[in-house]
Amino acid sequence: MSKKITFIRNANQLVTLTGSSDAPLTGKRMDQLNIIENGSLWIEDGLIEYIGVDGEVAERYKDRIGEAEIIDATGKLVTPGLVDPHTHLVYAGSRENEFNMRLQGATYMEIMNKGGGIHATTSATREASHEVLFEEGRKRLDQFLLHGVTTIEAKSGYGLTLEHEIKQLEVAEQLHEQHPVDIVRTFMGAHAVPAEYKADPDVFVDRVIQDMIPEVARRNLAEFNDVFCERGVFTPEQSKRILEAGIKYGLLPKIHADEIEPYEGAELAASIGAVSADHLLRASDKGIAMMAEAGVIAVLLPGTAFFLMAESADGRKMIDAGVPVALSTDCNPGSSPTVSMPLIMNLGCLKMGMTSGEVLTASTINAAHAIKRGKEIGSLEKGKKADIVIFDVPNYMQLQYQYGVNHAHTVLKGGVIVVDAGRLVCNTFTRILN
Ligand SMILES: N=CN[C@@H](CCC(=O)O)C(=O)O
Ligand SMILES: [Zn+2]
């Protein structure tokens, strides 16, 4: 069978981010995108084969141009597909009532402590069938794709029993199989202490450690293990036990850290060797320094701070301290019901002191490293997956300057066009990719 060839031609700017596959970018390197002007990409069977200036690539493949599907990117910006390394994709229901309560002064934790928040979504998710959760997740994935996102991480954590955590992870697996967006799964049984264990949270911690983690690992349902380390949720000691139990079963640690209060979550992430520490709005200077030293990726979620009307994490300070920074939507029904990585990048610039280049690095290669996919995706280099976005702007700075707009024009997943002129063109129920 002949190869499927795609030739993206003559981008005004082609952001390659080459040389970043082995480790996330830090410091000044986060702002160096390795751009090719008038750049072109030759793709064969879903993988990037060659990148260069248009004339050079055309000359190299002159005998085979007739076999290629040609995409004209003249005047446009081409980047790696966006990667979202922190989502709570699979859930039922919505919480606009809580948003309205917060607009009138109630706080996120007050609502949760009264049985709303994560508990409300847990009830709705426990009641929902696999089919309903699949359909809700599919709709969100279509929206992610339309915004240029080609890979996401998805957490469980709205089941809080073995049965319902497995249901969420299985829905995520099925979505991965049937939707062009790739999904990397994280077990988060320690997302909240369910009402039935309120009197004795340590018993629930034991259930997570003794029942859930071994079974999730045995059934290969997740690669990562995450915990909400926050005053009133899980203590640093409980979080440590949960993350260490995961490590024992091969689940790599991630942590929701220092979101509402300083709670030494960043310090724990560094000491345990977490792949990432996420949120970090209230991380201490000591914790940030320890993360830099240990190479823990900071997954920052400026949409959550925005939506909770809180001060954002200090992305500038973290980058200057040498911490590798990634960005994410934190898509979830309570603290950040958005699917828009372009908006998140805008907020990274406007609320966290990051540059236009840094937010792109944070949303592509560093985000890929935060889910251990840095060797396959996140930059445009020979041998990597042809997950690509063509934005209808002439340069990468305009992506941030014309804020609040989805500029994604064409999206390719594994070399196949899945969004064309801003419209979905893939059949979301048939995985067309390997
Ligand atoms: N903070 C904890 N977990 C989620 C919110 C979950 C929810 O409110 O439903 C987060 O990352 O923000
Ligand atoms: Zn989260």
UniProtKB/TrEMBL annotation:
One of its GO terms (molecular function) is iron ion binding. It is found in: Cytoplasm. The chain crosses the membrane at residues 288-309. Keywords: Cytoplasm, Histidine metabolism, Hydrolase, Iron, Membrane, Metal-binding, Transmembrane, Transmembrane helix, Zinc. Pathway: Amino-acid degradation; L-histidine degradation into L-glutamate; N-formimidoyl-L-glutamate from L-histidine: step 3/3. Its cofactor is Zn(2+); Fe(3+). InterPro entries: Amidohydro-rel (IPR006680), HutI (IPR005920), Metal-dep_hydrolase_composite (IPR011059), Metal_Hydrolase (IPR032466). Its EC number is 3.5.2.7. Zn(2+) binds at residues 86, 88, 256, 330. SUPFAM superfamilies: Composite domain of metallo-dependent hydrolases, Metallo-dependent hydrolases. N-formimidoyl-L-glutamate binds at residues 158, 332, 334. Fe(3+) binds at residues 86, 88, 256, 330. One of its GO terms (biological process) is L-histidine catabolic process to glutamate and formamide. Its main location: cytoplasm. Belongs to the metallo-dependent hydrolases superfamily. HutI family. Catalyzes the hydrolytic cleavage of the carbon-nitrogen bond in imidazolone-5-propanoate to yield N-formimidoyl-L-glutamate. It is the third step in the universal histidine degradation pathway. This is Imidazolonepropionase. The lineage of its organism: Bacteria, Bacillati, Bacillota, Bacilli, Bacillales.
